[in-house]
Amino acid sequence: MPKPPTNTASIASAFAELSAEGVAISVRALRERAHVSTKAASDWLAANRPSRETPPAPTEVFSGMVDTLWSAALIAARDEDADARNTERAELLAAERAALDDADTATTERDAAAARADHAEAEVATLRAQVDDLRRQLDVEAGRARAALDEAAAARQAAHASELALAEAQATARAFREVIADRDKATAQAKADAEAADK
User: Fold this and answer.
1) Is 104 a member of any domain?
2) Residue 80 is part of which domain span?
3) Measured at the alpha carbon of residue 149, what is the angle toward residues 147 and 152, in degrees to the nearest 5?
């Protein structure tokens, strides 16, 4: 915010206005009318308040000069007030532009953050889908592995049964061979005995 004007013309103009209105001249009244600081009003009043011993000015002599000074003081006060208002308006506009720029920046950052969040969520969804696919594949492979293990166990059992059957068959074959051998031996002996008897 711009500082209150401290030009003595504004204070002098305010003093003249208050005097013309018959208002008691005080630091507060002068400060509020001139829109200056308390110190500026107090310093000006201390330096320019008419002394009680001062005789009234000869208005008929100074009227033209006073009118000129009064007009100049009013113009200066108006110009100073206009300058202050223009300065204040420019500062307000600059502050508004800065606030709008900050809002635009915040909006851009918010949109960028939202885009990053959407991208991250999409990546998370993709990774979750890939994990689900891997889990399904692992389940399938695990099922195949279990089936292969079951088949291997069944094959081992079948092989063991086959080994047992083979051993049994081999034992049976040996038994048959022994029986046949015994019979052949008995037949040969019987034949030999018969031949011997014939002689």
Assistant:
1) yes
2) 50-189
3) 110
